[in-house]
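so my prof wants the structure for this chain in the tokens format not the other one, which i didnt know existed until like an hour ago. anyway here's the sequence
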Amino acid sequence: MIEMVIDWMIRSALVIYGIAVIIALIRVIKGPTTPNRVVAFDSIGAMIISIVGLLSIVLNTLTFLDASLIIAILAFLSTIGISRFVEGGRIFDNKRNR
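here's what i got, hopefully its the right format
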């Protein structure tokens, strides 16, 4: 009985995360400013990490957890890159003292 309730809760959480990703994707597309788009993009990354974790539970495997770590690293690096672009217009600094 408890397994059925847990299975129903996990599947409903997957549906809710899917709806949240769609709403955040709309914010990425229609966002009024670039910082709003960056926050929505970062939120999508966090939600995808959660979805991958839930799928790992549903499918009873640990291999998806490695993928969630890679997604987290890529989401962090892309957020830093976009934030630097918004702040100064450049991602990489061309002025180096050698």
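also thought this was worth mentioning. The first helix runs from residue 2 to 30.
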